[in-house]
Write a structure and sequence with these properties.
The protein is mainly α. The chain folds into 2 domains: 82 residues; 305 residues, no CATH class. It has 18 helices and no strands. Helix 7 crosses helix 8 and helix 8 packs across helix 12. The two termini are 35 Å apart.
Length: 394
């Protein structure tokens, strides 16, 4: 244990130093500093630390990044102006925002229904409850363990293999990535973003090209994997069997369960339903951003909402508790740098947008968590021993 303490302290010191250097700079160096600090924290502590130490440090690192991003987001704002903006908000548009948030979750449940349909027909309500539990877990637990908790919840309730439910969530995330790429391509090829690029000093077009290529390769691999699943499993099994026959059988069984979750890729009708509901999911999310912006009487062009949505997606990829910090920073960055919105007004809007997604999700998710008799002990097992739980599930 003694050899881990210096790593623990060194990670804090180096991470804090990186945050400080990034805070004194500007532009993309801020983001680079944030990511550098997280990499230092993760690598130095996680390589040899036990599960308990890793879990604690993931939480500490996430909190440090959250504080750093909040400081960046609100360092050039006026508290009085933020309060004035909050007092003048339209509750009608905020109510509409809540409706769109609920619809986005409902559409996620119906999309998941079609993804899981080749495996088992599951009620929309059962899927909706697991989705809310998962999003609640992402909001209050470190390292996005909510994704695993969601898979564990539906596997536990509906008696399906955990690896299969995980595979469907992986597929969902790839589809969501494809939807974000589609929005980015619309922004790049259809919308007049030259002035926005110049103001933000970010090569949006080049980023769009690179990310699109990466996702195209990933999607092609998944489709090929699904179409040639038998051959892939046989080749993998034969290679691993040279090392261990038992391990080869286990890996083949895991791959078979995982690929079962990708069964919907073979059905054109299900692909159509999945695509349609993906459009509805992201349309509802877009509706939430439109209404929350309208609640503050902020005027931006329609393509501005696409830019805002893309920036928020980038922000929430950074692991912090409840998406706090990166969400606010990237939300405000899109409005202030992209469309010259008053920093205090944009900051107030970011606070409300985050609260609208955070508070109802945690409350509803917690209710379902308790109703399904899940326990903190199960969550701890899910975060510490996912491999063991996966073995039990199959």
């Amino acid at each position: 244990m003694k050899d881990k303490i210096p790593q623990y302290l060194l990670a804090i010191i180096l991470g804090s130093l990186a945050f400080f250097l990034a805070f004194t700079s500007a532009g993309m160096a801020e983001l680079a500093g944030s990511l550098l600090a997280w990499i230092l924290i993760f690598v130095l502590v996680s390589r040899q630390a036990d599960a308990g130490t890793r879990r604690k440090f993931h939480l500490i690192g996430g909190i440090e990044i959250a504080v750093f991003c909040l400081a960046l987001a609100y360092r050039n704002t006026n508290a009085r102006e933020i309060l004035d903006a909050l007092e003048g908000v339209s509750y009608f548009y905020l109510a509409l925002s809540l409706v769109f948030i609920f619809l986005s979750m409902l559409f996620r449940a119906t999309r998941w229904y079609y993804i899981l349909l080749p495996t088992k027909k599951i009620s929309i309500h059962s899927l909706f409850s697991s989705i809310m539990i998962g999003f609640m877990g992402n909001c209050v637990l470190p390292m996005r363990i909510g994704e695993f908790l969601r898979a564990y919840s539906i596997s536990r309730k509906e008696n399906i293999k955990l690896t299969t439910s995980i595979a469907t969530i992986v597929l969902e995330r790839i589809i969501d990535g494809l939807m974000v790429i589609t929005m980015l391509l619309i922004l790049v090829f259809i919308c007049p973003i030259e002035e926005v690029e110049a103001r933000m000093d970010i090569p949006i077009r080049h980023i769009g090209y690179i990310v699109s290529l990466v996702y195209a390769v990933a999607i092609a691999f998944l489709v090929l994997l699904r179409l040639k699943a038998g051959a892939f499993i046989r080749i993998t099994r034969s290679l691993i069997a040279k090392i261990s026959e038992g391990l080869a059988e286990k890996v083949a069984h895991l791959l078979d369960s995982f690929l079962l979750g990708l069964s919907s890729l073979k059905s054109p009708s299900q692909l159509l339903q999945i695509g349609l509901h993906s459009i509805l999911v992201w349309g509802a999310i877009l509706g939430m951003y439109v209404t929350v912006i309208k609640a503050f009487s902020i005027q931006i062009p329609f393509y501005g909402y696409l830019l805002l949505q893309i920036f928020v997606v980038i922000g929430v990829l950074i692991p912090t508790p409840g998406f706090i910090g990166p969400f606010h920073y990237f939300f405000k960055l899109a409005l202030t740098k992209g469309f010259s919105i008053n920093p205090s007004l944009a900051g107030a809007c970011a606070i409300i947008a985050h609260a609208l997604g955070f508070v109802p999700t945690v409350i509803i998710g917690l209710v379902y968590f308790l109703r399904e008799h899940l326990s903190l002990k199960e969550v701890e097992k899910a975060s510490e021993e996912p491999d063991k739980l996966m073995s039990e599930a199959i």
